[in-house]
Amino acid sequence: MNKYKLHYLIVMGICFMACSQQTNTNKTTIDLDKKVQKKILFSSFVDSISYIPLETNEDCLIGKIQDIILSDSIIFVLNDEQNTIFQFNQKGKFIRKIAKVGSGPSEYNIINQITYNAKRQSISLASSKIIEYDLYGNLKNEFTPPFHISDLYQFDNGDYLLSRLERLDDPSTLLALADTAGHIKKVLFKRNSKYKVESTNYWELIQLNDGIHFITPQIENVIYSYDGDSIKKVIDFNLFPQIPSDFYESKQGTPLLGDNYYRTIYRESQNWVNLIFCTLKKVRTLLYNKNTNQYILGEVFENDIDNKEHIFFLSSSKGNTFTNYVKADNEENNPVIQILHLKP
Predict the structure, then answer these.
(1) Domain tally for the chain?
(2) Could you report the per-residue pLDDT of 135-149, keeping only the tens digit for each?
């Protein structure tokens, strides 16, 4: 679980486009302290923006949003308190919710993350248990995994891709394939014992056309994809300034990584990668285009298209989109989903 969240205010400004350097080891080299602009314009990477206001009534008071899933028919919303899964149609009309906090069968204490399987018509969650419900909240399956699970993805046969990429505790397994009873069928990815820096991710797996993508734990920044058969390296970011070796493990009492860049946000669409890094004094927002090998590097975003402010990031990236949420004009209403339709 993340211990805190970092959100970034949208302000006005300009952007800068640069080319990344591809080394002979196929690494993408970027210096986070060079050619940095104050602000990044939405118009530099966004074609258009659409909005879905979520209905507000006494049965669906959300407050803040932890994350969402945008399917072809249903919007699943996990609230910031991480205890309820709300369902809305594509126009934002409330359908139903799943709220089963407790310690009994089919109940959970807190929801780390959710996954939706359209073929199975089910929604699954990661808590102290893995629980699969039908869309009405009826129990289909549950099991207790052998270790803490932060994120998950369910395949059509019921198997799960289980992730604990943010964890430092044993075992060293960070990504595994499990069957419907929770038995580990295959360990897919293990922790690099050289790096033991605590992460703050509140999502770890991103579903794209070629498989499930994820980024390595701190302090590496390598993106991989898993297609249900094998793991493949997608992008290997070689970032400067490099972190000194005495920070390869979390330093007790040192917030983030001190004066070194610490990754706080990972988002990925079909064509774009968005990474955000922080020191105690600086913020770096990186947008990388996978098609052109170009990047934009700045401090913060500016929505110069329609000037909607107070952006909070979400993981959903259906097609070539990024998803955020913004406050409703009437702040007593539920948030509004903002979908950024990105440039190729």
Answers:
(1) 1
(2) 999 999 999 999 999
